[in-house]
Write a structure and sequence with these properties.
This protein has 1266 residues and is of the alpha+beta class. Helices cover 45% and strands 15% of the residues. Strand 13 and strand 14 form a beta hairpin.
């Protein structure tokens, strides 16, 4: 029941169920104008004026009565032309206004679909969805898409029509009627669902809505600018999109079940009913991790197409899912909220016959799947990308593959695959995934392919498996084809298509038989080049210029016409082929005469500079030179030496010819043009030279292996490994060449009977396959089941071969650097993932074998580590080049950089540890004492020298630091710190600082500051406990004072005594600095010292701990302690914390005065002074002993002399002012003893505040008051 959406639809989503007339009926005028479904009338053969207002009358041909069945009569032109079936509902056109749907603007993208079984079609334009029957006149519903608050930017809808309660079928097989037709719309980006339980019901009923899920990255999806198509172009994107949806009626009335698939492989089930929509994710493994090489485009978890493959049986219906590698069959329980379980899986990559059919293809895409009515026969549309081995040109191939279900999960090929287009133009992956397949139409065996650009092509296989193509087209323009289906019925089966401007049209089988031609274009899309237009016009004139004459021709004349068309097509090359041919012709002219005239202008006019990269015609010509086949192949039975001799001659000739090609580019000034405007293409050309040089060196190594006793053996090159047994057809390199050659032979049927070695050395441009093979088959190549010695020798052989090839390529680049373009943003081939993976695989094998060799073959370990060092150098250079290119292209590189750092540290740490182990062994052999240490240092110097250079190039800070520590060479450490100042990864000096700090080597760290003062100061900003020492060494006394003060306040591990010591140092540093404000800093430090002294007393008495308290918390703790000394200390905190602290903590200060009054027995003192006649001196002495007197004296007297105007700390202006006594009285009046002894309390307070008054006068006044 699935008909996918085609064009980019808007997000307008307000939908109201309504019909044109309001009651589900069609106006009588429209019904009268419509021709009833019936036999074809011969009276309609003439022309009539069109009734549609959107096409000029002069350009509109006759529209015959509806033709829905074959054999029912004669149609116009005897069935040689498309036949008009029905127009789009006039209510829908009236709603949209005048004009064609395809020209309504960006806000009204047109989508449409057809359901052949129910005879229903739908079309979506902006906010309006029209559903009508193309088989029954007068059945139409116009729905309004609801707004869901999502962006309307480049979204498309997938629509399903579900018929409920079908009663019977007519004699022609289509559904006569049903109780209800449900409509399900799903957003391809957000999984939002809109559901109409009955689209044709009368009255206005709002749809049921389910918003999208948060699991589908809505933010990134809604901001995506990619164009959409009829089945959600998600083939080459990283964000998940809905690729397909199918629906069926449930076992429960008025409920529909829908299943949607996503490009990320997820499956979702929706149960849609009048009461709402429930959604659940179907459990499916979406990891899809691919191991090794695969010819298929993406991993096997991707889901592209869904189709029902059986009718419901006991409430369960089987669903077929097309993945990137094959099929999956799922059982769908149609009961509400039923389960969906996987029945079986079929992987095409495991099918020998299928893979043989795909031999020679570089990449394969499974595009769409169709199932016949029995549910047993499957047809798959397949696109593949390949390269012509002779011309090195790239092309696409489209084919149909046929399968049959024999049993539960048993799939067999029903017939050999049928190639539709053998050599089509290369299309974008998004366009490939926009294609849909339709099967079951007439003529028998034909298939219709719908493309995302609105083309419909019928492929018909005739006698002798000869494929002919018919593309639906109306001369006056019908707009895009939105969908197609087959007219149901036993004797029917004609193709009908839905167009965006001209309604529904039928394609009679006779029109396909007479109008089909051999593949006339290099693709199934509308896109053509400028050079193709004249030939295309000639083809169109031949096909459609005299339609009447073609109709009168018999089948014999049609065959003759096809031959004429073949001649036209053969003279119709693509622009790329023409430009490539021109380049080859001028190159041959240059080789023959050395003369070139206006070649640059001619090639520019031919379009030779339009494509970039390896698709550029100059790059294609270069690839053809280095990949060309030998004129005379060596016999498959020839010995390896004979084959290599042939290869040697061929490679030498290719190298000479490639250099001539470079000279041709320079002489024709094409090199200069490429160097400035097509840098990537020129880079590819030069890489061919690099690979060719590497292949030649590899051939020399292979020759050396094939000749016993040769001094150029792999292991002999290291001078550390004993030479292995040589001979023809032995060695890891020979096996690798055989594997790569075999893979190339399997992928190209032209090479199946050729020698593997010659095939390998012929495909120069694919030298990366050598590293891919090593990465995938390392275990077999090393022969892990053999002895350790054999494994080491074979691994070292592979390592030496890889390093030799890469070194030669780099050397070629160095010697030919003048030919290269500027390297910004270009990634060399040896820096790409395939090569990096192969080299890393060799390195990991060497690391693994190293531990095994130490136990069983210690003599082989030195040679093994030498090869590992070489592999590490090449691998790290590859990573550095790849990261540099990404940075220059402003691409994300963090992930690659993390991988680079991880592998760098792994390899260099292993090399450093091995060198240290060898040096330790040498020291033990030399004996104890100074002689052993001397030998150790000597060995370390020798082994560490190349490692230091490697570490410096790749910023291996941990390795370099450990080397310096092992050598105990501080001069080397300082030199490396100076030389590494400009590294992007950071400075080595900072790494050294961090290591010294983490290891507790603070003295060494501070000594480094003598030479790296500024760098150390920046580093120590994060470690102020050491920063002040460095600042004192730099004579930055004022800065050191501030740092010391901060450390004393914020240090978490310091005791109170240590804090006080730091504050004293801060004071000394401030005074030594002599900067402005030094005295103020010193006073501030003294105040903090005094506060610390109070906390020290509190800590000693157990009131507080060693943790530094704020002044407020300290005062509160002192007052709560009840200690006379600590209460007095609270006043010391107040006086040293400052006037601002006092004013902001008035309540706490009030508590302090009251608590000070609590410390003495004022009632007892008053009673004693009254009962016992005290002298004035005795009373004065007693009052001076009270805490209230001492606090007043300290707060307003002594402290006031140091920190002036503490009296501002009282809102009531308590202080030495005229009304001070009244203010203190208002505070002390709250004390319980104030009622009886208030006067004596005030006297003690006033005595303390009158520090500057004369003692005699003060005493006299006081005594008088008492």
């Amino acid at each position: 029941m699935f008909t996918p959406g085609r064009a980019k639809g808007g997000y307008g989503r307000i939908r109201e169920a309504a019909t044109a007339a309001g009651d589900g009926t069609v106006p009588a005028a429209a019904a009268a104008a419509a021709t009833p479904v019936g036999a074809i009338s011969s009276s309609t053969a003439g022309f009539r004026q069109p009734s549609s207002p959107w096409a000029p009358p002069a350009l509109t041909p006759s529209r015959a009565s509806r033709v829905l069945r074959s054999g029912g009569g004669k149609g116009s032109s005897d069935g040689n032309q498309p036949v008009f079936v029905c127009d789009l509902p006039h209510q829908f056109r009236a709603l949209l206004g005048e004009g064609k749907l395809g020209t309504q603007g960006d806000a009204a993208k047109v989508q449409g679909g057809m359901d052949g079984k129910s005879g229903l079609s739908w079309i979506l334009n902006g906010q309006h969805l029209c559903v009508w029957s193309h088989l029954h006149s007068g059945t139409c519903a116009i729905l309004t898409v609801p707004q869901l608050g999502l962006s309307d930017k480049e979204d498309s809808w997938l629509v399903c029509l579900v018929a409920h309660h079908v009663d019977q079928q007519t004699e022609v097989g289509y559904l006569k009627g049903c109780d209800a037709v449900s409509v399900i719309m799903c957003s391809s980006k957000s999984l939002a669902l809109v559901y109409w339980p009955d689209a044709f019901s009368s009255g206005e009923k709002p749809p049921i809505i389910s918003t999208g899920t948060n699991n589908r990255a809505l933010t990134s999806l809604l901001n995506d600018d990619r164009p959409s198509n009829h089945r959600s172009n998600s083939g080459s994107v990283g964000v998940p999109l809905v690729t397909s949806i199918v629906a069926s009626s449930s076992t429960s009335p008025d409920v529909s079940v829908a299943v949607a698939s996503g490009s990320d492989g997820e499956l979702w089930r929706f149960d849609c009913g009048p009461d709402g929509i429930s959604k659940q994710q179907i459990a499916r493994d979406v990891t899809g991790a691919e191991v090794g090489y695969s010819v298929f485009a993406t991993n096997s978890s991707r889901a592209w197409s869904l189709v029902w493959c059986s009718l419901p049986n006991e409430g369960v219906q089987q669903l077929l899912l097309l993945t990137s590698h094959g099929f999956e069959c799922w059982n769908v329980d149609l009961s509400p909220r039923g389960v969906v379980t996987k029945a079986w899986t079929y992987d095409l990559s495991n099918e020998k016959d299928v893979m043989y059919d795909l031999a020679g293809q570089k990449q394969v895409w499974l595009l769409d799947l169709q199932v016949d009515e029995s549910g047993k026969e499957f047809t798959v549309l397949v696109a593949s990308f390949s390269k012509d081995f002779v011309t090195s040109s790239s092309h696409m191939q489209y084919s149909l593959h046929y399968f049959q279900l024999w049993g539960e999960g048993e799939i067999r090929r029903r017939a050999p695959p049928q190639i539709i287009l053998p050599k089509a133009r290369v299309e974008e992956e998004a366009f490939l995934y926009s294609m849909c397949l339709r099967t079951g139409g007439q003529p028998a065996g034909s298939a219709l392919i719908l493309a995302g650009d609105g083309t419909a092509t019928v492929a018909h296989v005739g006698k002798g498996n000869h494929v002919r193509l018919y593309q639906f087209d109306l001369s006056w323009g019908a707009g895009k084809v939105l969908d197609a289906c087959v007219v149901p019925g036993e004797d029917a089966g004609a193709w009908i298509v839905l167009t965006e401007d001209a309604g529904v049209w039928a394609i009679p089988p006779k029109a396909i038989l007479l109008g089909a031609v051999q593949p006339p274009e290099r693709g199934l899309s509308r896109r053509v080049s400028t050079t193709e237009e004249p030939v295309k016009d000639e083809r169109r004139q031949l096909m459609f210029g005299d339609a009447t004459e073609l109709q009168r021709l018999g089948s014999g004349r049609v065959v003759a016409g096809d031959a004429q068309l073949d001649q036209v097509v053969s003279q119709w090359p693509s622009q790329d082929d023409e430009a490539e041919t021109s380049v080859g012709r001028f190159f041959q002219q240059y080789l023959a005469s050395g003369q070139l005239t206006s070649v640059l202008d001619k090639l520019q006019n031919a379009g030779a500079f339009e494509r970039e990269g390896d698709r550029n015609v100059f790059a294609c010509t270069s690839r053809a030179i280095v990949d060309t086949l030998a004129k005379h192949w060596a016999s498959g039975r020839a010995s390896g030496v004979a084959v290599l001799a042939t290869v040697s001659s061929q490679l030498a000739d290719k190298q000479r010819r490639h250099q001539q090609y470079l000279n041709f580019l320079a002489a024709s000034k094409c090199h200069e043009e490429l160097q400035h405007k097509q840098r990537e293409a020129l880079h590819v050309i030069m890489e061919h030279g690099e690979k060719l040089a590497g292949m030649m060196k590899l051939r020399e190594l292979n020759n050396a292996q094939a000749q016993p006793g040769s001094p150029d053996n792999f292991t002999g090159s290291s001078k550390l490994l004993p030479p292995q047994s040589s001979g023809e057809g032995t060695g890891a390199l020979w096996d690798t060449v055989q594997l790569v050659g075999e893979k190339a032979r399997r992928n190209n049927v032209m090479l199946m009977d050729r020698d593997r070695v010659e095939v390998f050395y012929t495909r120069v441009s694919e030298l990366e396959e050598l590293f891919i093979c090593i990465q995938q088959h390392a275990g077999a190549l090393v022969q892990c089941d053999k002895a350790v010695k054999v494994q080491i020798e074979r691994a070292a052989e592979l390592a030496f071969a890889c390093s030799t090839v890469l070194r030669v390529a780099i050397a070629y680049h160095d010697t030919q650097h003048a030919w290269y373009p500027s390297p910004e943003g270009l990634t060399p081939w040896y820096c790409k993932p395939a090569v990096r993976s192969g080299v890393w695989k060799v390195a990991t094998m060497l690391l693994k074998l190293k531990s095994e060799a130490e136990a069983s073959e210690p003599s082989l370990t030195p040679g093994l580590m030498t090869q590992l060092e070489e592999m590490a150098d090449l691998l790290l250079e590859s990573y550095a080049g790849a990261i540099t290119a990404k940075v220059e292209r402003e691409e994300e590189y963090r992930g690659l950089q993390m991988e680079y750092w991880s592998r760098r540290d792994t390899l260099l740490t292993a090399l450093q540890q091995y060198a240290a182990q060898v040096a330790q062994t040498a020291a033990q052999r030399a004996g104890g004492g100074g002689k052993g240490e001397e030998q150790r240092q000597k060995v370390l110097q020798k082994l560490y020298t190349p490692l230091i250079a490697l570490g410096c190039r790749h910023a291996a800070f941990s390795t370099l630091f450990q080397i310096c520590m092992d050598l105990d060479d501080h001069k080397l450490l300082r030199r490396l710190m100076r030389e590494s100042m400009g590294l992007k990864e950071g400075r080595f000096s900072r790494f050294v600082f961090e290591q010294c700090y983490q290891q507790g080597q603070h003295a060494r760290l501070l000594r480094l500051g003598e030479e790296f003062g500024e760098e150390l100061a920046v580093f120590l900003e994060e470690h102020p406990e050491l920063l002040w020492v460095h600042q004192l060494k730099l004579h930055q006394f004022t800065a050191a004072s501030k740092t010391l003060f901060l450390v004393s306040q914020h240090s978490t591990n310091s005791t109170i005594r240590q804090r006080r010591h730091l504050l004293q140092l801060a004071k000394l540093a401030a005074l030594a600095g002599g900067a402005a404000g030094a005295d103020e800093i010193a006073q501030n430090v003294d105040a903090n010292v005094a506060i610390l002294a109070v906390q020290e007393v509190a800590a000693r008495e157990g009131v507080t701990g060693e943790e530094l308290l704020s002044p407020g918390k300290l005062v509160d703790a002192c007052l709560k302690s009840g200690s006379r000394e600590l209460v007095m200390g609270a006043f010391e905190v107040f006086t040293n914390a400052g006037a601002k602290f006092c004013s902001s903590n008035y309540n706490l200060l009030e508590q302090a005065w009251l608590r000070a009054a609590d410390q003495d027995d004022w009632v007892g003192l008053k009673k004693t002074s009254d009962e016992e006649p005290w002298s004035d001196d005795h009373l004065l002495e007693a009052l001076q002993g009270t805490l209230l007197y001492q606090a007043s004296k300290h707060f307003f007297g002594e402290a006031g002399m140091i920190l002036p105007r503490f009296d501002q700390g009282f809102p009531n202006q308590i202080g030495v002012t005229a009304d001070s006594a009244e203010a203190v009285e208002s505070v002390l009046a709250k004390h319980p003893s104030y009622t009886y002894a208030g006067q004596i309390m005030l006297t003690a307070f006033r005595m303390g505040t009158s520090l500057h008054a004369s003692l005699d006068e003060r005493d006299a006044d006081t005594m008088a008051d008492l």
